[in-house]
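Fold this sequence, please.
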Amino acid sequence: MLNETKIRELSEPDRESYFSLLLQALEDAPASFLMTAKEAKQRVMQTYQDSLTSGDTGNVIFGAFLHDILLGTLGLLKENKDKTRPSAIIRGVYTHLNYRGIGIGSTLLRTAIHHAKEHMKCHVISLKVESTNNTAQKLYESYGFTIERIEPHALSMAGKFYDISHMSLRLRDNSKA
């Protein structure tokens, strides 16, 4: 099934399927995202629309499709500040519950790393992951990401606190500007 899955950048026609999958992700794994479903409904559609129509090559959302059905996503954002330009941030990683464990997340991650290195010319990719999400953390570590620090009690939901692991992957030698 994985060999039938196609990875590509999302575009304007994917807007509704992206938003639908995002809402599912926020319901399914609320501790994995910094926003709530309510916040997503209020602002994500406009942000997504803006990023698709702006022509900005610093924002990319990759989607994993099986027979034109969106099964997974991964966002890649290039920093826009002069001093941080060689870095990118991974966010919004999600695979539909029924399609986990077959390599979609790995394929999305491999695509994003290649894109950040070859097309965005980044030196470093960073991401945040809820500290007890061992499956995601192991996936990131398998691609060379390391934990830089843990932010205690970074998320609060229903009276429970969650720590966030800040991870990074060095793509190039950063000793030269």
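The chain has one domain: 2-170. The beta strands are 6-9, 59-66, 69-78, 87-95, 124-130, 146-157, 160-170.
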